[in-house]
Structures are given as structure tokens and as C-alpha cells.
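Aim 2 progress update. The chain analyzed this quarter is reproduced below.
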Amino acid sequence: MSTSWPCKATSESALTPAKETAVAAVVEKPVHYIIQNLERTYGVPENQRISDPLYMLIQIILSQATSDINSHRAFTQLKKRFPTWDAVLRAREATLAAAIRSGGLANQKAAVIRNLLRQIKERHGSIDLSFLHNMPTEEAAQYLAQFRGIGPKTIACTLLFACRKEIFPLDTHIFRTLRRVGLIPRKCTDERAHDIMNQLVPKGKFYSLHVNLVRHGRTLCRPRDPQCTNCPIVEYCDYGQTVI
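Predicted C-alpha cells:
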């Protein structure tokens, strides 16, 4: 499986004509001001530590379609039951699924995790992804995209959070907010949305914008009854301008 990941952090990245058109359609949006206003409201978050990419990747897989509390519980139970990644790989899939049951979709996630660990072991002789720290963003994203069940959001979260790479993850809250603002089309694939945002976000602001958009989506730009009159970016929002 191959996915194109045009990121500002890599000079060799290039947009196809179709993607250039998608970015051009929203380029008039003042992204710098949107970031600035969100930081004035929610602060300037900073990723204070670099962590193990494999730990982060497994945590993100376990976080899919569940709450933070449940995914944290599932990861804690996983590490308690299996002290090493090799132990996870040796375990029966049903045993692994039982250990992560609290995170939901246990059978599906167990299959993804075991397949991931197996392929890493086969390719490198050990179960370790620390080499991603030293890879260019584009190359690291392409590497992770080869694994079944590892999509654009999971890849971007792993590289942004664990490796501090310049890549932008979109979750449900961010998709909703950016569609309302008009930075991504209302009908837009996950891959295309990530492509657009990786081009639009200024260098050094990937983490800040991601975290603050999540905060914004949870507090003001909610699925129902969005608080547009209190919104710090309403002047740049297509949806907000129709309701205030």
C-alpha cells in the first residue's frame, strides 16, 4: 500500500495538479491568524518530550473508536499482561484480544497489532521503530503506510507526538471544525484532507494547531449547538458567518 504524503518538512514533496487545486481553493484563508487566535484563547501547547514511536503507534491503534480512558486502560492491561513486544507477538490472538478488551474492537485491534509486530520483526530482526526519529517526515510516513490498518491519522499522530515531525493529524473534532471554517471541502477523503493541511500549516505550528483545534471542537465548535458567538475564529469561518 502506498500513500502520498506531501509535507512542508520535506523539500522533495510535490503536489499533483488535483491536490494543487484543492490547496488553492482554500489558500485565501488566513491560517496564521486562525492559529494566532486559537493560541490566544487556548494557549500555546508544546510537545515537551520525544517518545518511543512503537509505544505511541500501539497506543493510537488502541485509541481508535473508544474513549481516552478506555484506550489507556487497554494499553496498561496490555503491558501488564505482556512485558515485551516479543511476548505480544508470541501470544495467541485470542489471548491478546482478551487483554485489550476494555478498549473495544478487541479482535480487530489484536489482529492489526500482531500483524504490525510480525512485519517489523521480519524486516528488521527486532521489534523497534526508533529509527523513525532519524527519517525524513515523508519517508517515515511512507514506511508506516505499508502496514495494514495504519491510516493517515494514525501515521500523523505517531510522527507528530512521538517524533515531533511536521505532519498534521485530523480527528473527528478537527474534521468538523475545518469543514465549517472552509479549510477542507465538506466532501473530502481522509487522505486528501491530510494532504491539504500538511501544505497549509506553517512550520512549527503543527502541534499547536492540532491540539488547539481538538480543544476548540470539544468546547465551542461542538457537533450540536456550536457556540459561534464565543468563537475566536468566527470571522474566518464560512459556517459561523451564516449564523451570527
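Residues 1-13 have pLDDT under 50 and may be disordered. The longest helix spans residues 106-124. These observations will guide the mutagenesis experiments scheduled for the next reporting period.
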